[in-house]
Amino acid sequence: CTNYYTGEKFIFDAGGSTATSNAFAMFFEAPGNNDQWSLKMRLGDSSGVLLPATNVLSAWYYFAITYDETATNRQAHWWVGQPGGTLQSGFFSATNGSLAGEGDVFYIGNSTTGNNAFRYQNSSHTGNGQISQFTIWNRLLTTNDVAAQFNALSVSAGPPPVLCISVSGAN
Questions:
Q1: How many whole angstroms separate alpha carbon 31 and alpha carbon 114?
Q2: Structure confidence by residue, pLDDT tens digits, 4-19
Q3: Would residue 165 be called left, alpha or beta, if left means φ above 0 and alpha means ψ between -120 and 50 degrees?
Q4: Model pTM?
Q5: Per-residue pLDDT at 87
Q6: What is the per-residue pLDDT across 56-97, written as a single tens digit (0 to 9) for each?
Q7: Is 15 left (phi over 0), alpha (psi -120 to 50) or beta?
Q8: Contacts 24+ apart (CB under 8 A), 49-57
Q9: In the beta sheet, which residues pair with residue 77?
Q10: Are 131 and 108 in contact (CB under 8 A)?
């Protein structure tokens, strides 16, 4: 199969851009850009790499992000790991005055522009991403909460296979 991957591919997006200081997004970086195919995050007026590109697009991953908009440090705490592997974590900061996704719709699986989905398809490219069990909590999860969720994951054989069918002959 030919998989045309162009542009950033969003897992979620809200708000605007880092230029407007209200970004909140997780996405895979576009080919040809710095850090291509890496998993990146935007928060307020900042963006950065959460996970380098090494095999990111060929396996299931667990992601968790907590963000307390009332905190003065404007930090998001993030976790990422492959089921059955090690859970990595860190903090991502925006400067004071920045907000995460303020005043916009929260898009799961696409960007706020509507044309950078992880599964977006048209005549020039296709996406083959899958998102499973996206959950939004009404409270701030603790590190122990996130670790318990991650440790309870069952390890599967990986993403489902991609079926490619081609036609040959007259019938």
A1: 19
A2: 456 788 888 887 666 6
A3: beta
A4: 0.74
A5: 92
A6: 566 778 899 988 877 777 788 999 988 888 999 998 877 766
A7: left
A8: 50/26, 50/78, 50/80, 50/90, 50/92, 51/80, 51/88, 53/29, 56/28, 57/28, 57/129
A9: 66, 91
A10: yes
Backbone Cα Rg of the chain: 17
Cα-based distances in Å from 147 to 68, 133, 152: 19, 16, 8
Q: Pick the closest to residue 21 from 39, 45, 3, 40 (CA basis).
A: 45
DSSP state, residue 18: G
Q: Which of the pair, 161 or 117, is modelled with greater confidence?
A: 117
CA 62 to CA 88: how far, in whole Å? 10
Q: Which amino acid makes up residue 79?
A: W
Which contacts of 143-148 are long-range, i.e. CB under 8 A and separated by 24 or more positions?
143/77, 143/89, 146/64, 146/66, 146/79, 146/87, 146/89, 147/87
CB atoms inside a 10 Å sphere around CB 78? 22
DSSP state string for 37-94? T-EEEEEETEEEEEE-STTGGGS--EEEEEE-TT-TT-EEEEEEE-TTSPPEEEEEE-
Give kind and range of the element (H or E) at residue 148. Answer: helix 143-151
